Structure formats: structure tokens, C-alpha cells
Amino acid sequence: MSDAPRPDDLRDQLPDDLNAVEHFGPYEFPDNSRRRKPAILYTVVALACLLLWLTQRDAALVNDGFLWAAILLGAVALFAFTSGWRMHVDEKEALVAAQGAVGFPVGHASAQQVWRGLRSRPTWRVLVYSSEDPPRRRGLVLVDAVDGSVKEHMVQDNPVEEWDVG
User: Fold this and answer.
1) How many whole angstroms separate alpha carbon 145 and alpha carbon 111?
2) What is the pLDDT of residues 19-68, one digit of tens each?
3) Rg, Å, the chain Cα set
4) Could you tell me the residue ranges of all domains in the chain?
5) Whole-model pTM?
6) Which of 68, 40, 67, 42 is nearest to 52 (CA)?
7) The domain made up of 91-157 is a member of CATH 3.40.50
């Protein structure tokens, strides 16, 4: 009998800080500044490749691929470092900013973290409904997760839906 795992035993798992299902209490979204740690690693490897290419390019195992690897890893490191924004606004603060932008008392609301632009700036996408039952108005607000400014918002009447339960 072998100790090798059976296919049924192998499962993909989310890291603990991303698994909201098994989390009790308020959930805190991971900060995008975590991207800076791999950026440092990419930079170190890119510099090592460049140094090897500069000093050992006449050796049998070092060729122009080391230069191309250094350039590619350097570009990825630059992107990862510059897109590692530190988030200063959580979803509760985004909900408050959204309520101020739509101009009506908010009942139900939800916030989702998204990224905008080439440098992946973190943004809260907030969907809000007015406090009446059923809600008469709804709005969609984009709140910057770095500085808390409202980037865009849209408000419209909430369509009345008739449900035939018969």
C-alpha cells in the first residue's frame, strides 16, 4: 500500500487571508501593497541576471537570454512595485462616501473591490438602494480606495418588478 495521495485528497485552497467563508467577525480586505514583496524578489533576480550577463557572457552557460530575462523581470518588478497601492479606505468608509454622492438615504448596499487603470489602483464599487420598501432609487458609486474620493457615480430610478407567484 503506497503513501501517495489519492486524487480525491488533493484540493486547491485559498490562503487564509483571502478565505472569507471560514472567517468569523469583520472581514478585512488584503492590502494591495503586498505586491511590493514579490517586486523586490523580481528586482533581485533581474539584477543577478544582468550581473551574470555583464560579467560572464563569454561563458558557455550565459547567453543573451540572461539579458532578456533581466529586462523582462525588471519590467514586471516595476509594474508590481508601482501597482502596490496602500489602501487607506475600507468598505465602510466607501459606503459613507457613496451615500454622500447619491444624495438619498441608503438602505441596502454592498461594496466590491475592483481595480482601475493600467497601474491597478484599488477602487470600491458600491451598489446602493434607497431606504424605502421597496427601494425607489438605486445608485452605483466608484470610490478610490487610496484617497477616498468619489471617481464616478450614477443614480437612477429603481424599476418596479411585478412577481407572479401564482
Assistant:
1) 11
2) 666 656 665 666 777 788 899 999 999 999 999 999 988 888 888 899 99
3) 24
4) 32-82, 91-157
5) 0.65
6) 67
7) no
